[in-house]
Automatic annotation (TrEMBL):
Gene Ontology molecular-function annotations: N-acetyltransferase activity
Residue stretches making up the N-acetyltransferase domain: 1-161
Protein name: GNAT family N-acetyltransferase
Keywords, in A-Z order: Transferase
Pfam family name, one: Acetyltransf_1
Length: 170
């Protein structure tokens, strides 16, 4: 398995995985398939090239056959008062690749990347409270809950709560 930042040449496979993820796991994302299926390929390419430095991006996990099987976004705050904070977002692994360490490998790569960034002191993320597998993975790496947002997502007539988790570096 190879893990690396996605680039503009990955736009087609990224779009395919993102749209599949939004359909397959709608409670894992703040966005929706209905919303993003209208986006052009250029819109998706902009996501992969819109970051103004090498600190931010979307990690992709590729299997040995070069198929994109997972993704995890990382961004660092750019505002001076919050530049010490990074965020993880849009973690997703294809169902057939789950329970094989792909999510853990993506998370570990993102954490290694974050620890190399000068001045970064914490990473934050959100996860729906019913996503026990993801929550367990984050907690296994030291993330702790610092808040709960009730009714954070509304999907098909049902509200979902989200936990806010943080990992502090020493």
């Amino acid at each position: 398995m190879e893990i690396r930042f996605l680039n503009s040449q990955d736009v087609v496979v990224y779009r395919e995985l993102r749209l599949y993820a939004l359909r397959e796991s709608p409670t894992a994302f703040g966005s929706s398939y209905k919303q993003e299926s209208c986006f052009s390929l250029t819109d998706f390419a902009t996501r992969l090239s819109s970051h103004d430095d090498s600190a931010n991006g979307i990690f992709g996990a590729f299997d040995d056959g070069d198929k994109l099987i997972g993704m995890l976004g990382f961004s660092r705050e750019s505002r001076l008062k919050r530049v010490h904070i990074g965020s993880l977002w849009s973690m997703y692994v294809l169902p057939e690749s789950r329970r094989r360490g792909v999510g853990a490998a993506l998370l570990d790569e993102a954490l290694c990347h974050a620890r190399r960034l000068d001045g970064l002191r914490q990473i934050i993320l959100t996860v729906t409270t019913k996503n026990l597998a993801a929550s367990s993975l984050y907690r296994s790496r030291g993330f702790e809950r610092f808040g709960l947002e009730r009714d954070a997502l509304f999907i098909d007539g049902i509200y979902f709560d989200e936990e806010h988790l943080a990992l502090h570096f020493n």
